């Protein structure tokens, strides 16, 4: 009898953690390449390679779709492309851990939207304290980098909202595959203009493929398998570790160190996200997009 694959022994929690680490390591590797290629060109390579792999896996059925189906998946692709483009623009300007922490404000705000419970206002205050700590500790943060991180967070919130509608209309990986193609197509021209002939260099293509694998294919596969058995609330709690994972990946891959106060800020946002997830609707019922 053949031995089971090692990844299957991890269990759903282990698979989610592998996905989280893979996303952030991919982001750190991408940032390390920004000296050779623009963030726009690199995020296009990531989206392009992940779309190709997903298309080969899913082979989506496109015929017989209604106008509403296409409008939903186009909006999904727009939010996916905008989120990835914005976060790459952000951590090209500010530390990766800080960028992901600020980005997390989007899904956190979505989880708490409309809540009237006093406990949930405490989570809002804790997250706000974390963001303010980042601002006070690093007054030299590039304002444009901060703005891009918050834009990415807004796109992430719209991604979460549209993912449910897309999942109802497009079975399996079909919707995600079409959205990935849309996202890549949206930034093809800007990527060509900013990347030029660099996009054809074998080293850049290889790293782009690696980033697409680490940041999209591996985490989606891990998380979709995990979501078959893991409770959504627990999945949301685990995904709340993303900012801390980003900060650690930046230390290991890039040598980006955070000050103690910045670690406190990251911890505030992580704790607020965990608290909001446990006390309200889960932040995520789909794999993390970036």
Automatic annotation (TrEMBL):
UniProtKB keywords: Cell membrane, Membrane, Transmembrane, Transmembrane helix
Membrane topology: Multi-pass membrane protein
Claim: Transmembrane helix is one of the keywords in the record: yes
Listed transmembrane segments: 40-58, 70-88, 94-114, 121-138, 144-162, 174-193, 205-226, 233-254
Pfam families named among the record's database cross-references: EamA (PF00892)
Superkingdom assignment: Bacteria
SUPFAM superfamilies: Multidrug resistance efflux transporter EmrE (SSF103481)
Localization (cell): Cell membrane
Positions of the EamA domain: 144-275
GO cellular component, as recorded: plasma membrane
Family statement drawn from the similarity comment of this UniProt entry: Belongs to the EamA transporter family.
PANTHER family recorded: EAMA DOMAIN-CONTAINING PROTEIN, OS03G0707200 PROTEIN-RELATED
Identification of the protein by name: EamA family transporter
């Amino acid at each position: 009898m053949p031995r089971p694959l090692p990844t299957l022994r991890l269990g759903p929690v282990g698979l989610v953690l592998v996905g989280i680490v893979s996303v952030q390591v991919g982001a750190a590797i991408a940032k390390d390449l920004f000296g050779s290629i623009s963030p726009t060109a690199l995020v296009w390579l990531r989206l392009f390679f992940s779309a190709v792999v997903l298309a080969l896996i899913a082979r989506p059925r496109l015929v017989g779709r209604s106008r509403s189906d296409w409008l939903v998946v186009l909006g999904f692709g727009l939010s996916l492309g905008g989120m990835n483009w914005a976060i790459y623009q952000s951590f090209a300007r500010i530390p990766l851990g800080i960028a992901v922490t600020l980005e997390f404000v989007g899904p956190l705000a979505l989880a708490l939207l409309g809540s009237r419970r006093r406990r949930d206002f405490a989570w809002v205050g804790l997250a706000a304290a974390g963001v303010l700590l980042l601002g006070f500790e690093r007054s030299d943060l590039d304002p444009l980098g901060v703005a891009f991180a918050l834009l990415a967070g807004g796109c992430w919130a719209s991604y979460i909202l549209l993912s449910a509608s897309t999942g109802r209309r497009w079975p399996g990986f079909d919707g995600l595959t079409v959205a990935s193609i849309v996202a890549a197509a949206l930034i093809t021209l800007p990527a060509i203009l900013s990347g030029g002939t660099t996009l054809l260099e074998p080293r850049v293509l290889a790293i782009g493929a690696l980033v697409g694998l680490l940041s999209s294919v591996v985490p989606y596969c891990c998380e979709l398998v995990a979501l078959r058995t893991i409770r959504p609330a627990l999945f949301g709690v685990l995904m709340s570790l993303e900012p801390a994972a980003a900060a650690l990946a930046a230390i290991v891959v890039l040598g980006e160190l955070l000050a103690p106060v910045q670690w406190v800020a990251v911890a505030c946002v992580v704790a607020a996200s965990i608290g909001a997830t446990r006390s309200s609707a889960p932040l995520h019922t789909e794999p993390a997009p970036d």
